[in-house]
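User: For my dataset I need records formatted as: sequence, then structure tokens, nothing else. Please produce one.
Assistant:
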Amino acid sequence: MSYRTAIMGATGAVGTEFLRILEQRNFPLASLKLLASARSAGKTLTFRGEKLPVEELTEQSFKGIELVLASAGGSLSKKFNPLAVAAGCVVVDNTSAYRMDPEVPLVVPEVNPEDIKKHKGIIANPNCSTIIMNVPVWPLHKANPIRRLVVSTYQAVSGAGAKAMAELEQQARDWSAGKTPVKSILPHQCLFNVFSHNSKVADNGYNEEENKMVNETRKIFHCPEILVSATCVRVAVLRAHTEAINIEFTHPMTEQQVRDVLAKAPGIKIVDDRANNRFPMPLDASDQDDVLVGRIRQDISQPDGRGIDLFVSGDQIRKGAALNAVQIAEML
């Protein structure tokens, strides 16, 4: 079978990645409609060697469509996803609009694919940092229940969209030309800088990104008791998020046991070369489907052997967004 498919937010960073992945994975398409804002209507994007027109997203856009891959922002998802469902579509939504809705499955295919069949028209794609953490953490949790996760992220500007990526590139050009780098998309200069993730800080002192990692992990794992603490940081990297993860297991677990579990787990590539000091890096993770995992070591602050440290890197636009959504669609 093949499917009449629409991409909502087709001209954004994730939207254009949808096109690449659908082509690379030979997704069974009967037709493909590209939807975006009125200002993008009339543009063309290349898919399978053909120029496809971009149409304005309207309330009538979903007639005859079966599958929608949505990445146009939370407010637009809230407005248009119900219309798409009413028109007979299944929506895989890449925004935060429905992630914590108890009626909407939140899915990482390597973790909880069985939740897909529970959908009522909408399936939510998790936050990019959550996905990149959960892919390697889940198989370890199955082998030895995790009591506590402490994660620090090093997040690329790709997480803030195509305009943020362009801003970092322009800042580099300006600096090399002796000009003062200008910021407009991100709240601080990103070039040569590191700053707390550019999302609103909640009453608990954690920003939105950090709270997403906590709450989404509990929902995806069906484990409300798991303890998670996150510190999310934006770094001057174009693409691919990196994370330092400290794990406290219920029972002691050795480095080798962790390696053995991860070596058999889907969606993971171990990069752990101590002799040459080579471990996961965003340059290596960019454009890759797998999450790179390394720096696998015993946590020396936990002498009872229940602690393990990991360092991981994954392509935020790919596995952290578009690929995860397409994998859900393939399972549908």
